[in-house]
UniProtKB/TrEMBL annotation:
Domain of life of the native organism: Eukaryota
Full protein name: Uncharacterized protein
Natural source organism: Caenorhabditis brenneri (Nematode worm)
Length: 34
């Protein structure tokens, strides 16, 4: 637990990717419906 840097970076990267894909899907559906 001395160096939490790499773990936090990995978690942030995976989190941002998951959020991005999660928000991109609804946007695509909205664009298709319109």
């Amino acid at each position: 637990m001395g160096r939490p840097g790499p773990k936090i970076k990995a978690l942030r990267l995976s989190g941002s990717q998951a959020l991005g894909s999660h928000f991109r899907i609804p946007e695509n559906f909205k664009n298709r419906k319109i």
